[in-house]
Design a protein that fits this description.
This protein is an alpha+beta fold. It is about 35% helix and about 25% strand.
Length: about 775
Amino acid sequence: MAKNLVIVESPAKARTLSQYLGKDFDTQSTFGHIRDLPKKELGVDIKKDFEPAYQIELDKQKVVSDLKKAAKGHDVWLATDEDREGEAIAWHVCYTLGLDPGKTPRIVFHEITKPAITKAVANPRTIDTKMVDAQQARRVLDRLVGYELSPVLWKKIRAGLSAGRVQSVAVRLIVEREREITAHKPQSTFKVTAAFDAKGAELPAELDKQISQIKDAKSYLEHAKKADFKVASVDQKPGTRSPAAPFTTSTLQQEAARRLGYGVRQTMRLAQKLYENGHITYMRTDSTNLSPLAVKAANAYISANYGDKYAQARQFKTKVQSAQEAHEAIRPAHVSKIKAGADNQQQKLYGLIWRRMLASQMAPAQTDRTEVRISVSGRDEQFVATGEILRFEGFLKVYGGGKEDKILPPLKPGDRLKLLGMLASETFSRPAPRFGEASLVKQLEELGIGRPSTYAPTISTIQDRGYVEKKDLEGEIQKSRELVLEKGRIKEELTEVVVGADRSKLVPTQLGEIVTDFLLKYFTSIMDYKFTANAEEELDDIADGKTDWRDMLGRFYKHFHPLIVKSQAASRSETLQVRELGKDPKTGEPVYARYGRYGPVLQLGEASEEKTKDAPKPRFAPLPAGVELDEVTLNQAIPMFNLPREVGKTAEGEIILADIGRYGPYIKVGTRFTSIKDHDPLQITEAQSRKLLKEAAAAAKAKHIAEFGKIKILRGPYGPYVTDGKKNVGIPKGTDPKKLTESEATKLLEQAPASKNHRYKKRSD
């Protein structure tokens, strides 16, 4: 029987760890946090120096019971992750199992490998209470903000909303960027490019300044028709391109988005699995440092596989010093393992990490760069042609993305060139780009907001709460003028260009804008970027033992709570951005555009202050499709109060109603709803409605295979399946769903595995 019990937070990590510990050790998992603040109350005694009232979560009571049984007669070791969150989990385990945090051995490692585990077991430490204090400070701080601020949002905006210290600032960044884009007025200029005959080879070049007016661009091309062109200078310089540092959490998220198209949450989920299975080092870090052993192994691999000239050992200076993070970059646990991961997505991410780390220890790429400047007789501007040749691949051998060679013809100053053609094309200034997940991570990191482990949950949370949407933007078609000089003649042409098209960008919702405006007005300091960044620095100071965590919370709450009191005076109509559009011509009642319980809405009439049954009530209507709350006009709003509209009747004589709901326009017959998507509910005809109803009935019939009371056999997007309304089970291949009996369908449902109860609690750090 094993003498020692090692407790970690992940079952996958426990399985991998057990491979290296030997027969004297058993491993158990906490499945994440086992104690936390209560969900339905503040759980913090402000009068008692912010004492937290932790409790064991309901879904973790069996886990705790199992841990207590496993710990009997064993020496307990704690092996949770070496960051604040992992330290806090270990501390809570001690409290729950009745262990002394000052005596229970705590082992830490950055990779799950035999050497790392052996070294950790030989050098245990005890729980770092300063790191625990920093985690408690963050948890209590975020609870205070959420618990006191969220009810204000319920009262002033909409029930069920919530606010977070870091999340609200992230939404502010997205809202301000969107408004910057909306306010941007494009300025047009003309870019002039030309093609020259250089000793029989075509030489493309670009004018070294842009021209602001079309008349000036036309004048320039007129001059060029008769001008002489000569090589003014030829400048050749050797250049180098150095490799980037190995990955930190944020740079991994950014590069995985750029190269693999992975979202931030997806990247962290895959990296977690790679770490827990022993393939990479710990994936929550802001350090670019590599261990001496890793550097030595990488250089040995490079020399053996590519040659000595490709190897160049180096360390990178870490930009951010944070007490909470592991002190090594993300790297492969074994550099000799080229491929790793349980599926294609994990393998791609592992390959990216492997190549980045290996490239960081390789020689720079060497290039020859040539710049040719071409003079134009009678003008000061010059055309510029550039070329670049890769002389030595260096790190690009494994971490590509380099450009193809661009070789210029051999030229010398004074060489005359013949103009083949010239183009002056209109270009438009662009605002700063919208944030994607990766660029938002980069911005948060530059501002010092949050820490590596907070980026993924922050970005997920603001989308889950409906403050931000990830959207593909189609862009707008814009007319662009071009002047073409060819064979001595100038032609003016008009082309169409798409401006503003983009993929997977974060765009604020109307709700996100309303909440941001409210918070900026009444909680200016909390929404300040520097204030949020300074809070992170104070948490680091707590982890370093420089600041007492309760003192930090006291200073914050003394500033924060009066803002809560002050915000109670906010007007609901002002907060919801209620805008009067005018009067209804028929009734004379005012028409408003406002934000309602489920989103933007139109209101006809005033809400009566009388609370009686007969008191007049306003009418509500949805916004017209494609119209924003701050854009809708009275003329657009009035027809919307005619909804629901009676379109006609079905062939059976049932009334057909058309309306707009939370999920778009629809028609309704009795209790049956049918989406009409591309049709206007104010314009759709009886014939169109009947056709859509017929198509919907045919689709429902095609989906339906058989029915046995509550049990149904249906066709789905992934094939036929059995359902009882709660559980769906795919029908095995080779089985004819039409011949399936009730007893066979029931058996399939009974044999299907139950959904797992154990779920990881999201890291709050």
